[in-house]
């Protein structure tokens, strides 16, 4: 469950403290972009579970085990956690290519003896970031311009980031 924990601060300090919604949305967005690990299917008794599919923008059902990450026991919990983080961005601020929302995986695997310069999209910063890694399907581009044209959304009056 990714809801903020109940505060253990005295009431006066609770009133003075502010909840950082942007950090909460970032944490949920990171969780909701995670792919299912293979071990969610290795348990004696599989149950109905839900995960957020970034390519579809919705929660989908699967049969598996309770594990941390993008894995929820109720569709409602999945929606409360992920739809807000995903839909929190207006349609105009979301990337054109939904692959840009996929997590960056195995970037430090050696590619035939050496790592190569690649570009990935950082959904929180709305910009392309240089990494050393291997070509992979999804959120992984050979050239910065390719990443920018597929993923970075323009803001009125500003150049591509």
TrEMBL record:
Pfam families on file: Kunitz_BPTI
Residues covered by the BPTI/Kunitz inhibitor domain: 32-82, 100-151
Entries under SUPFAM superfamilies matching the protein: BPTI-like
Alphabetical keyword list: Disulfide bond, Protease inhibitor, Serine protease inhibitor
A GO CC annotation given for this chain: extracellular space
Domain of life, source organism: Eukaryota
One Gene Ontology molecular-function label: serine-type endopeptidase inhibitor activity
Name of the protein: BPTI/Kunitz inhibitor domain-containing protein
Organism of this sequence: Magallana gigas (Pacific oyster)
Lineage: Eukaryota, Metazoa, Spiralia, Lophotrochozoa, Mollusca
